[in-house]
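Forum: Protein Structure Q&A
Topic: Joint prediction for protein chains with partners

I've read a bunch of threads here and the consensus seems to be that you should model interacting components together rather than docking separate models afterwards. I'd like to see that in practice. Below is the full input, 536 residues plus whatever partners are listed. Could one of the regulars post the assembled result?
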Amino acid sequence: MPPFATTRRVEFGDTDMAGIMHFANFFRFMEVAETDFLHALGLSVSRRAEGWGFPRVSAACDYRRPARFEDVLTVAVAVERVGAKSVSYRFDFTNQRGEEVAVGRVTTVFCRDAGPGRIESAEIPADIRAKLGG
Amino acid sequence: MPPFATTRRVEFGDTDMAGIMHFANFFRFMEVAETDFLHALGLSVSRRAEGWGFPRVSAACDYRRPARFEDVLTVAVAVERVGAKSVSYRFDFTNQRGEEVAVGRVTTVFCRDAGPGRIESAEIPADIRAKLGG
Amino acid sequence: MPPFATTRRVEFGDTDMAGIMHFANFFRFMEVAETDFLHALGLSVSRRAEGWGFPRVSAACDYRRPARFEDVLTVAVAVERVGAKSVSYRFDFTNQRGEEVAVGRVTTVFCRDAGPGRIESAEIPADIRAKLGG
Amino acid sequence: MPPFATTRRVEFGDTDMAGIMHFANFFRFMEVAETDFLHALGLSVSRRAEGWGFPRVSAACDYRRPARFEDVLTVAVAVERVGAKSVSYRFDFTNQRGEEVAVGRVTTVFCRDAGPGRIESAEIPADIRAKLGG
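Posted by a regular:
Agreed with the consensus. Here's the joint model:
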């Protein structure tokens, strides 16, 4: 699979009183990058109409350098592992000066709707798996 | 109806790089105060199981004084108007020194589920109206 | 001043359990549109290094139609008024089908740093005023 | 050190279109729990006036069970390690039925102001270290 990267600017509302992007917002940036990545493959993080989605089972981030208001972050997305039911991503954040800002990891599990307000994990369909490089 | 007020602390993540609570977060505080208010009446902003909710049709806030990290804001909730289908609230924010911080207004409309992903406005049921003082 | 518009996609994390963009996030979208608008004029919502910014004194939004995950909203920005110290904006939100989604209004006040953690309102400098069409 | 726990309700605005608390908001809940914990010790996550704070260098969360609107989560806070300059926390989330919801970990580094907009890591002062049980 070719490397994939997307960009997103740090907005005023993404910062906190320390003058830098709030640490929880890196996870929102990862989600946006994952959405962009899946779109590029013709997929989505959620196809409610089709009754499936990719909820997260774990998420982590190591912070190397602050991100500031109006920084434009490049988020490189890599699929680290495709399991029977799960997909693990790595996200490398760099700023507009090419400096490493953060490294994130998220594991999602393929789930199908199983009645009102209920979902259950399921094997990733072959066509989705193929697109993810699994 | 007796006056109602609730409190909520300004968290680190509620602030922005100006060192004060981000302006959009006042609307989140209004929503929490509305939830507290409705709970006190034995109601909720959303009863998904019963197929109804109170989505917003307008929201506004006037900012008088900054709210800072670790400030404990008192949010007084008043029902300004109960219409056939709508409820309008006023929220008065004061800080722990009794200073006026902000005044917000939100109008919500009673809606019922009308098929998958669809809702439609409806008359507020008499029991809910009575609790709201309408 | 020529009309200005920017676009922003509704992300998964922008939605709430009603399946639509949370009402407070429209204010974050307004802030992003304001930043884009000011950038297009060679300005910013905050020039910390130069000791000035544009904090908000009021914000309002009328919601006409839900915005959903993966909708791409166009936000048209118009300067409604430039006062001695304040700027009032109007934001018109439309979706990718050209439907009106929301109308927002924000008034900001030009402020200068006035010591540690303090700011005070000031007259908008002539060069900034000229760019804003005031 | 005696065990410490705090509670926080899942608000409407904390949820996403999957009907559950958005995964990034668990990190905001961890921050609130850390603030409560430090307050209980007579400390804070940030003492801007005294020129120090505890920015994060890593954060992680394992999600075991969804948290839903109006759930009241108990967040137990444990200091897992106090290093020369860092503090590592573990956060155990349970819901009002006593079910495990998530487990989070955050490592923060003690930093002092080092000029405008700059901070640098430093050894944790003895009095703060003693309170943290290090």
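The CA atoms of residues 92 and 103 of chain A lie 5 Å apart.
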